[in-house]
Structure formats: structure tokens, C-alpha cells
Amino acid sequence: MKETFEMPPEAEELMKHHAMIKAGNCGKFKSKLVTKYVLPRKTPFSTYSQITPTEWEEFVAMKSTKEFSDSSEAHR
To answer: Which of 15, 26, 34, 48 supports an S-S bond with 44, CB 3.0-4.6 Å?
Structure first.
């Protein structure tokens, strides 16, 4: 954003803060997808039409690994 817009230096901390909030929301969304759809073996297409079948297959594959399961258990 710095290359596109001119902002006062004090705005940088505020930008970082908002970026971290957005990143956290992404993690919450992914967690919600795992809980509501991956674990019960459902698909989210009727609720989240922006997710393609290919993206969903990749997401399910990533979240269905033993490494993910072990990491998830460790962080509970």
C-alpha cells in the first residue's frame, strides 16, 4: 500500500494492526470450515458459493493429514 498511497508515518502502525485483524479473521474462517464441513464430511458449496470444488478438495486434503490432526490436538 505504501507504493500506491501517500500516508503519514504514524498510519503505519494502524495499517499493521488492521492487517493482523484481517489475518486472524481468515484463520477463524478456516477453523469454521474444518469444524462445520471437513470433520462431518459435508461440503460448503450452498453456503459459500465462492469456493470451487477444486479448492475444496485441496483444502480437505490439507486439513485431513495426520500432521494437521496432531497439530490441532496439540493446540486444544
So the answer is: 48
pLDDT digits (tens, 9 = 90+) for 32-58: 999 999 999 999 999 999 999 999 999
Give residue 27's domain range.
Answer: 11-74
Q: What span, in angstroms and rounded, lies between the C-alpha atoms of 51 and 43?
A: 10
**Total number of domains in the chain:** 1
23 CA to centre of own chain? 7
65 falls within a domain: yes
pTM, to two decimals: 0.68
